[in-house]
Amino acid sequence: MRVSSLLLLAACTAPRPIPEPIVNAGPPHSQVRNLILFIGDGMGPQQVGFLDLYARRAPGSPFASGAPAMMRLAEQGMSGFSATDPGRELVVDSACSATQLALGLPSLSEVIGLDVHGEPQPTILQRAEAKGLWTGLVSDTRLTHATPASFAAHQPHRSMEDEIAVQMLASGAEVLLSGGLRHFAPQGGADLSERYPIPYPTTATRRDELDLLKRAEEQGYQLAFDRQSLREKAQPGQKLLGLFASSGMTDAITVREKLAATDEPTLREMTIAALDVLESSPEGFFLMVEGGQIDWAAHANDTGWMLHELLRLDAAVDAAMTWAADRDDTLIVVTADHETGGFGVSYSMFELPEPVELPGAGFADRPYQPSYDFGKPERLDAIANQRRPLFALLDEHDGGTAEALVALTTTDTAFPLTLTEAQRVLSSRDNPHHRPEGPQSRLPQTMPNIQELEAYYPAGERARTSLLARTIAHRQGVTWATGTHTHTPVPVLVWGPEPAMRRLTGWRHHAELGARMQEILLDD
Q1: Which of 164, 283, 362, 368 is the most exposed place for a label (fewest CB within 10 A)?
Q2: Looking at 328-476, which runs of residues are DSSP E strands?
């Protein structure tokens, strides 16, 4: 191979360096004392645009008297985009992307808190703690899940949640609020219900006898397990560990419909509680809040569920904006780790429009009749009125008949299946990606009968939810390209002191965005 070819190969495979900082005009000091970072997991520009479309155009929009918080934040502040690709591949996962934001450095797929060489590097949370700032992590998934983990732990793989839980406590963060009790309790549970007022069924998946709840109490944490105890224990200057579910927290539709007996706090309530604790920090604070189930809904291609997860995150953003409204020392950043699903609202030939008479002179001799179905605003209300996530519908169906599935989609959605569609949703076929040996041996030998792009739906039987969602998508006027992530650059919405905003907007990469957030909060 020629030297020139070797150089070209090296250039194509080597991690991309972080661009040199751009010198902005204006005061050298950003005057930022507090940084609140919101991460909408899976929330690309398509998802943000869908929230805006619903808010403005749905006849039953809850935003008749105002705009969503994210739109208001963008209007009052500045906005940009950020690429998310990993150091060695093209498409990112949540662990790598959050790690790039947390470290300000390129990283590797599925790792937690490691740079592109596999070396642990201090995160923005750990650096903030070292400088005397207070810190917090909030998520509606699990505390040990990829995004929050990346700000407080260092592990070679995101699946090592027991080890992540240990490092989460060791980080010193003043506020830790999410689900995930199962990774903090010792093997077997050690009579958790006798020692703590836990209102939900508990499991313990740790493979050792380490009792992290007891360790947390020894480190000065107050423990909260429901909405009421969170309100009582979220006191200024008081360290707080809240674990509100054994695994992930309840989805936004189930919470809205009160379909489950839960007293979990909302993401908005957890954000407010975190601010109640952190605002008394003498040096300022760093807070990361994740709307993590946007991603889960988009993996399932479930448009109705995704909309309600977007609304859940937006309510939390609104709480932070309200808290910071009269402050000039706080920077709010809203972004995502990646886009999930290749989502879009699209025009089609599903329901061709009828001719309509218009009074304008341009249509004096002919009616108005577009060539295609460009989308009807009423469908937005129909999507929003979905009664539960599609995975829960299939859980209840539990292998029943096609007729039973038709009945469930008729009851729970405005887009019922036909019998033929239900039969296809319930059918399976050989999985062409299963292998008898190697990592692919863990894949099931059969898979839901996804006919196109089946390689992009690797979730085994869980992909049946995606098959159901894709089957009704044309009635909703939406399209989905994949059951995984895309490379799509994600929005960056910022509000705060202008010099700081200018350093984060424009076109960035997440490693650069993370580096600049550290500079603004910790180095200026």
Answers
A1: 362
A2: 330-336, 339-340, 344-345, 428-430, 446-448
Look at residues 225, 224, 220, 223 and name the one whose alpha carbon lies nearest to residue 237: 220
| Domain ranges across the chain | 30-343+485-523, 344-431+462-479
Q: How confident is the model at residue 260 (pLDDT cuts 50, 70, 90)?
A: low
How many angstroms separate the CA atoms of 200 and 261, rounded? Answer: 9
Taking the C-alpha atoms of residue 377 and residue 159, their distance in angstroms, rounded to an integer, is: 41
Q: Which of the listed CATH numbers 3.40.50.2000, 3.30.70.270, 3.40.720.10, 2.40.50.100 matches domain 30-343+485-523?
A: 3.40.720.10
Angstrom distance (rounded) from CA 217 to CA 402: 51
Catalytic residue among 30, 82, 94, 466: 94
* Residues facing residue 494 across a β-bridge: 78, 333
Q: Is 371 a catalytic residue?
A: no
> Tokens 């009074």 appear where?
359
* Residue pair 283/34 in contact by the 8 Å Cβ criterion: no
State percent of the chain over pLDDT 70.
93
Please give the structure tokens belonging to residue 123.
Answer: 């995160």
Structure token pair of residue 432: 């062409």
Mean pLDDT computed over 361-368 = 96
- Assess contact for 80 and 512: CB atoms under 8 A: no
Q: What is the DSSP secondary-structure string of 227-259?
A: HHHHHHH--TT--EEEE-SSSSPPPHHHHHHT-
